[in-house]
Design goal:
The chain has 338 residues and is an alpha/beta fold. Helix content is 26%, strand content 26%. It has helices at 41-47, 135-138, 141-153, 171-182, 194-202, 217-224, 242-248, 259-262, 289-302, 317-325, and strands at residues 2-6, 15-19, 29-38, 64-72, 84-87, 118-122, 126-128, 163-167, 186-191, 207-210, 230-235, 249-258, 280-284, 308-313, 332-336. Strands 3, 4, 5, 6, 7, 14 and 15 form a seven-stranded mixed beta sheet that branches. The radius of gyration is 20 Å and the shape is globular. It starts with a strand and ends with a strand.
Length: 338
């Protein structure tokens, strides 16, 4: 089979396409014919030197992939040959609170990921495609979508009438906008351009703030909410935005800190920002298989369609990385395996 591998760290030139023997599933495993994969910020971090957690050279990159079951190993009962499935970001986190051992298995980092024609995964580490999504749409879900879903339903569940603040137009932020609207919330989004603001409005944002034109954007959030603030903030910016996010928060509100924002050092906060308002902060490490399945039920019920910016063919995976690295995309960047 054809498969990419990380030959060296440092940049996109470190991934190379080669061939290797077709893998065979063992007991409890399935052979997944990968039909599509998608890129996440953590994949860039892995390629540039490891990111957060164990990483090794020679692995097949990318955590997110969808396809069909091509073969099953002994004892497999959850899925059958021909089923359309998606791999889970955390292959051993099935439900309940996260545990340290779940973080040691990192697809596309220290375990072979999805940027190959075939992948071996545990039967316990897949979920079925929701509704009639294509493989390309389904491949966007494991990391970004589950992260956004848990950001809104985990530590503090967003309910109808709440106000949610999202940042930018990457995968997590777009899914957060879509899911917040699905849950009945009002969304205020931030972005850097009029063109993206128009697209965010078309997706259902009630208001969009251009943070380039309005650097003190928390003041605009206060104005748009009659001084109340946002009930939930999906925080992806890290040190550049966290103080503004806290100032944007309503009394009793919650900030969901997304993993990539926590990977940046240099966050320093005035303790007075945190006092006396009953706010909470919680970090998100994607989510469990149970979270994935709950999200998929909502996607199917509401016929939600993931937003895909661009699809690259398998042979142009390096170009997909470079395009994604420029961070001009709106939604998800996908690689189709054909």
């Amino acid at each position: 089979m054809r498969a990419y591998r990380i030959d060296r760290f440092g940049g996109v030139d470190g991934i190379v396409l080669g061939s290797r023997d077709d893998p065979l599933p063992g007991a409890g495993q399935i052979l997944l014919r990968v039909r599509a994969t998608s890129l996440n910020y953590r994949d860039l971090m892995v390629l540039k030197g490891g990111g957060r957690g164990p990483t090794r050279l020679g692995v097949v990159p990318l955590s997110d992939g969808a396809g069909e079951v091509a073969a099953v190993g002994e004892g497999v009962g959850r899925v059958a040959v021909g089923d359309r499935v998606i791999g889970c970001f955390h292959p051993r986190w099935f439900g309940g609170p996260i545990r340290p051992e779940y973080l040691t298995d990192r697809l596309g980092a220290n375990l072979d990921g999805m940027l190959a024609e075939y992948a071996i995964v545990s039967e316990e580490a897949v979920v079925r495609l929701p509704g009639d999504l294509s493989f390309e749409e389904a491949a966007t879900l494991p990391c970004a979508a589950v992260t956004a879903w848990v950001a809104l339903t985990g530590h503090r569940r967003v309910t109808a009438g709440d106000t949610v603040l999202t940042q930018g137009s990457g995968g997590v932020s777009i899914f957060a906008l879509q899911f917040a609207r699905l849950l009945g919330a009002r969304v205020i989004a931030t972005t850097s351009s009029a063109a993206k603001a128009e697209r965010l409005t078309a997706l259902g944002a009630a208001a969009v703030i251009n943070y380039v034109e309005t650097p003190e954007w928390h003041e605009e959030v206060a104005r748009l909410t009659d001084g109340q603030g946002a009930d939930c903030v999906v925080e992806i910016g890290g040190p550049g935005t966290l103080a503004h996010s806290i100032k944007s928060l309503a009394v009793g509100g919650h900030i969901s800190l997304i993993g990539s924002s926590l990977s940046r050092s240099g966050i320093a906060l005035d303790p007075l920002l945190l006092g006396g308002r009953g706010m909470t902060l919680g970090s998100i490490s994607v989510g469990s298989r149970a979270d994935f399945e709950a999200m998929n039920r909502a996607i199917a019920q509401h016929r939600l369609r993931p937003v895909i910016d661009r699809v690259f063919p398998f042979a142009e995976a390096a170009e997909a990385y470079r395009y994604f690295e420029r961070r001009a995309h709106f939604g998800k960047v996908v690689i189709s395996h054909g």
